[in-house]
Amino acid sequence: MTRPSHFLNNTSLKGNATPQTQSLQDQLLETRLRIEQAKLAKLESDIPDPTPKYTRYEDMPPPTPEDEARFEAQFRELIAALDSEEIEQRLNRFRTPENIALRQQLKELGVL
């Protein structure tokens, strides 16, 4: 059983309308070429871009209300830690007479 030529010319495999004079072999070669080109395009699109893309601060979306609340809580914790006695105690460990004398010498030399 043979297929009518108009069936072969109207298949969904064809990208462009081919003239009636084109042979079946030429149509198959064209179809294979388009398939290979599509495969190549797909492979090329899967290759990662070698240059990293960064988001500029201006392009960032505004923070959500939850993010703002979390930031505010962390900020208040840090501010509270600055006023705490624990930090003062840690600083006092480094306020030895030797360190105070060294700091004075560095000031006299113009380093500080």
TrEMBL record:
Residue ranges, annotated region (Disordered): 1-23, 44-67
UniProt superkingdom: Bacteria
Residue ranges, compositional bias (Polar residues): 7-23
Name this protein carries in UniProt: Uncharacterized protein
Originating organism: Litorimonas cladophorae
Lineage of source species: Bacteria, Pseudomonadati, Pseudomonadota, Alphaproteobacteria, Maricaulales
